[in-house]
Structure to design on (245 residues):
């Protein structure tokens, strides 16, 4: 995938991996559009990067997803790349009644939204030079951590959906990539961390991770597991016991 000269939508640019990708892609001269729910973060990003296009949007809401894609299509018809990055990570105790609203919210954000967005963007991307969709899954797609079962299942679903998406969209000239991150030091799962430790949990530094993502995309590798995620992909369920001991 060519990393320059694109008009790229990166979902979830208000923190973590999305923000890291936005910054790097802007530096490469791409036109970058991003979204998120936290409007104060979007305003700070706009102030820091005047060429960045931002739009407040809750991707867990079907109507807002459709409105976001229509907004992009009307203002940035050159769009040729979608990075499905936005996601949330919740825990669930399966020994008691699960909070079904939380389960739905996690699946809506991590599975329904990227799938729906890909299908809405596909006609806009079709036939364009360098057309691509990049799905950010997880090493946990291949071997779950039992205390976050829905999250891991959502990422396993994204892995499977990426395979189907790649097959279905190839005739439209859209390349579909999957990036499976290891633990990266972002705000993911911040709800369960003590205040003040929301953004640091000992994972790979964001800059190092983003560099590895761009290297893999530039090399045209369709499925890349980065860092420890590669071990999870190759060893899969054999690691389940040791991880959940
Ligand atoms: N960090 C890791 O260790 C790790 C490992 C494997 C995979 N991943 C995946 O990497 C992706 C990025 O996560 P991250 O680690 O960078 O976490 P993060 O720092 O929490 O960032 C998540 C981003 O997603 C956005 N988002 C969440 N729900 C949204 C919604 N309903 N509508 C719009 N935007 C929404 C957030 O923006 P707002 O809060 O402003 O809406 C934020 O910009 C996720 O798909 C995650 O599953 C991360």
């Amino acid at each position: 995938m060519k990393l320059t000269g694109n008009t790229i939508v990166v979902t979830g640019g208000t923190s973590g991996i999305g923000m890291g990708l936005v910054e790097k892609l802007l530096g490469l001269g791409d036109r970058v559009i991003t979204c998120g729910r936290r409007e104060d973060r979007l305003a700070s990003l706009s102030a820091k990067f005047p060429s960045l296009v931002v739009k407040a949007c809750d991707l867990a809401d079907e109507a807002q997803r459709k409105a976001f894609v229509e907004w992009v299509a009307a203002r940035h018809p050159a769009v040729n790349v979608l990075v499905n990055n936005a996601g949330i990570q919740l825990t669930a105790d399966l020994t008691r009644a699960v909070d079904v609203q939380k389960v739905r919210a996690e699946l809506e954000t991590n599975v329904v939204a990227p799938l729906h967005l890909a299908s809405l963007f596909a006609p806009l991307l079709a036939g364009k030079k360098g057309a691509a969709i990049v799905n950010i899954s997880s090493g946990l797609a291949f071997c779950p951590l039992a205390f976050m079962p829905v999250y891991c299942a959502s990422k396993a679903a994204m892995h499977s959906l990426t395979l189907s998406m790649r097959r279905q969209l190839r005739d439209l000239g859209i390349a579909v990539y999957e990036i499976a991150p290891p633990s990266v030091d972002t705000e993911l799962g911040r709800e369960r961390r003590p205040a003040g430790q929301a953004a640091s949990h000992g994972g790979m530094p964001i800059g190092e991770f983003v560099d590895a993502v761009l290297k893999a995309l530039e090399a045209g590798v369709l499925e890349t597991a980065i860092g420890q995620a590669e071990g999870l992909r190759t060893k899969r369920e054999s690691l389940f016991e040791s991880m959940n001991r």
In short: Residues 7-243 form a domain with the Rossmann fold fold (CATH 3.40.50.720). The helical segments are 16-27, 39-48, 62-75, 100-125, 149-169, 206-218, 228-235, 240-243. The chain has a mean pLDDT of 95. The beta strands are 7-11, 31-36, 53-56, 81-84, 132-136, 175-180, 223-225.
